[in-house]
Amino acid sequence: MRPGHLLLRTAYRTARHQSHILSRNRFAAPIIPSLPLQALKTNTGNMSTAAAAKRLAGKTVVITGASSGIGRSTAFEFARAAPQHGLRLVLTARRADTLKQVAADIAAEVGDGVAVLPVRLDVSKPDEVRGFVGSLPEEWRDIHVLVNNAGLVKGVARAPEIAEADTDVMFATNVTGLINMTQAVLPILLARPNGGAGDIINVGSIAGREPYPGGGIYCATKAAVRSFTDSLRKELIATRVRVIEIDPGQVETEFSVVRFYGDKAKADKVYE
């Protein structure tokens, strides 16, 4: 089981409703059509956990936005896939205390066979991203997998009433942050012999393909993620670095709470 398959399974497990989830990588057909939820569970359930553990043995995985939602679930999927094989998980987000709790929860479930390093990081801050790799303990810098999951949405305003601050934070987090994280980690992947090695997994959204009223800026950011991912894949086609995009549909996480500026009652109505 490859890292991209783990995240695809995560997206399905965290989805409240059956939704379209697309996966793109340079070794597969351009688009894997959406499958019924139960069919995907059956297929992934048949994949060899031993093979997944072997692939992840001794690897270092960086997950952004790991304090909740898909990011948190992805961390657990990696840990469960290789609980006794020297896997290292670098979990980043803005909420340091929450990250520490996630690390403790992983340890409680799988034991000490997976090393977890919580790192406070705001990907919307270029200076923080530039210093990220250098701030890690030396033994954690040999990164093999980057999961660009951090992202957010603000408001449901329509033009011309979209707040400039909301536009800025969505692009800084969803687009610029993802690009900056990729640029920080990619040299490590390319430095490996025989054409480099590693995985870059970008979490996009169906919204990047099917824009909707009231989501103009968020949809634009996810369309940008799709374009950047496709371009990056073509740039790296001659290397052994895989570039993967996962496009979830509707998933019940803290996403809508952020969209409605902390109003959980409004957020809950989205999933009714």
Set out the fold topology:
Layout: H1 3-14, E1 22-25, H2 37-45, H3 49-56, E2 60-63, H4 69-81, E3 88-93, H5 96-110, E4 115-120, H6 126-130, H7 132-135, E5 145-148, H8 164-190, E6 198-203, H9 216-235, E7 241-247, H10 255-259, H11 264-270
Parallel strand pairs: 2-3, 2-5, 3-4, 5-6, 6-7
Antiparallel strand pairs: 1-7
Helix pairs in contact: 1-4, 4-5, 8-9
Question: What does this entry look like structurally?
Answer:
The chain is an alpha/beta fold and 272 residues long. It has 11 helices and 7 strands. The protein has a 7-stranded mixed sheet, sandwiched between helices. α5 links the parallel β3 (88-93) and β4. α1 crosses α4 (69-81), α4 runs parallel beside α5 and α8 packs parallel to α9 (216-235). The model is unreliable at 14-21 and 25-42 (pLDDT under 50).
